[in-house]
Amino acid sequence: WGERCNVSSLVVAVNPAGGFNCYWEMPFRTRARITVENLSPDPVPALYYQVDYTLTDVPDDCAYLHTQWRRSNPLPYQEVHTLLEGVRGQGHYVGTYVAWGSNNNGWWGEGEIKFFMDGDREWPTICGTGTEDYFGGAWNFEHPPGEYGVYSTPFLGLPQVIKPDGLYRSQGRFGMYRWHVMDPIRFAENLRVTIQALGWRSSLEDQRRYLPLQDDIASTAFWYQTEPHAPFPPIPGLNGLEVV
Questions:
Q1: pLDDT single digits (tens) 102-112
Q2: In the structure, what pLDDT confidence band is assigned to residue 55 with cuts at 50, 70 and 90?
Q3: Structural domains of the chain sorted by starting position, each given as residue range(s) with its CATH number in brackets
Q4: How far apart are CA 149 and CA 95, in angstroms?
Q5: Cα 171–130–106 angle (5° rounding)?
Q6: How far apart are CA 15 and CA 20, in angstroms?
Q7: Of 37, 56, 130, 171, whose CB has the highest number of CB atoms within 10 Å?
Q8: Kind plus residue range of the DSSP H or E element containing 115
Q9: Which of 40-49, 54-63, 177-186 has the highest mean pLDDT?
């Protein structure tokens, strides 16, 4: 959301007052190149970085780290946000970051995350029970009553809650992560990951009704796999990335 918040996790740490640290293992065999691109016409006044690496033998069956960013803004009505699809080959899924901007009143996290793998079609091998459950929370993240409880732990967290201010900040925005370091999701042939965006409508005849949401959802998926990998979807330009 263009705003820094502290994160204290095993593989990603964001610290005061602008330290961004990443510890995902990124094996390479012959060469590696890391680039930083400024999409704005304005210059960046300063950029400091440090890259640590080890020159060693890499096993033949060692998989490469992949990450993929996607955004649905807004999510079309009654559709799911796709975090990852088209992955072919053998590997394991290791992490999810989601930035979620709510465009409705009420609770926004009733949707399920689903992992379709190795030939799954209609029914996924892994199906979550709710958005907050997948990210390690429960009962709408509400603690104390009437407030979102932020937290950051080694493997999962809700470190960022941006509240409306009654003027120009009109929407609630959230940042959540889950790292599958201790519980990698292994696949042998293919993988697709989606998440529903569901809230609640008013009840009719004492029956609760889901509300398909049209929220602003951006995600980054992390996984390791053997090569070759499928082509990635194009990243949008400056206007498609902008947070407004």
A1: 999 999 999 99
A2: very high
A3: 62-241 (2.60.120.1390)
A4: 22
A5: 30
A6: 7
A7: 130
A8: strand 113-117
A9: 177-186
